[in-house]
């Protein structure tokens, strides 16, 4: 048995430990792909954890929505029990519900319970549209940046920008703007975008990176277009993809959609991570509109609309020969494994991809 597969077995063991307690964060293992020697593969492997979409909601004074607090606290607690420890933690955005100082401070306080691990932050629209990221930048993180870790180039993007006119000229107060952008199905909303400034920065950042270097892009919204009325959408996604397509192995991990979703566009594999707060339904299960849920994505069987934890959970991602295999562990539902199929050229659900095995989408949302 190769070292790689031993490591995968080990990771599965670690996952099983986590599964017993069903925590809503994701473990990500990156493995050096084809062409590496066993020694270099050993050197390049690492794991990071991923937590997203906690939506901490301030009520009054010191009171916050305890259900949402509970999701994030549980993730942090479990993360501290991980053995071996991950190399670092990604937070995928929407730490707060309305971008309030109280909410972001509360999030930082809970996240500070993570022991001895660096956190890499991705901003979500719920963190941004009150003060346009000022408190975030002053106290948490830059809005976009890149870093290298053990031979992998990571890029963090702020993908939830929109038109200047919508942002600056339309709303009487900052909170009104925030509340408009916080709504899911809002005709007064505006589509997300990365924007010219970041696209130019991205192209320049990647000039220094060899085409064979694995790239991991961390965004909040999907860097492709799923469903515009809910802003499961990035308006300039095609232009961002064009910059990324020159690389052999590109993996985009995003939050925002609060559900398992996956797609393949050219060399780019897209995977959504679950939320610690609540699941969103798939667009097609809610609205009788045309939608573009990826044809590779199989609907989760979210059977119980009264169970707010059905559809939240955690998972792990292995990058084997540059392709993702994601093991999703759900709190109140069937676990899922999504692996890239060389034969089909896109990710495939190991159990449910075949139509005869699929559970029909729920339509009672
Ligand atoms: Fe969210
Ligand atoms: Fe979001």
Automatic annotation (TrEMBL):
Residues 342-352 have a biased composition (Basic and acidic residues). It is an enzyme of class 3 (hydrolase). Residues 355-365 have a biased composition (Polar residues). It comes from Thiohalorhabdus methylotrophus. Pfam families: Metallophos, TAT_signal. This is Metallophosphoesterase. Residues 47-259 form the Calcineurin-like phosphoesterase domain. It comes from the Bacteria. NCBIfam families: TAT_signal_seq. Gene3D superfamilies: 3.60.21.10.
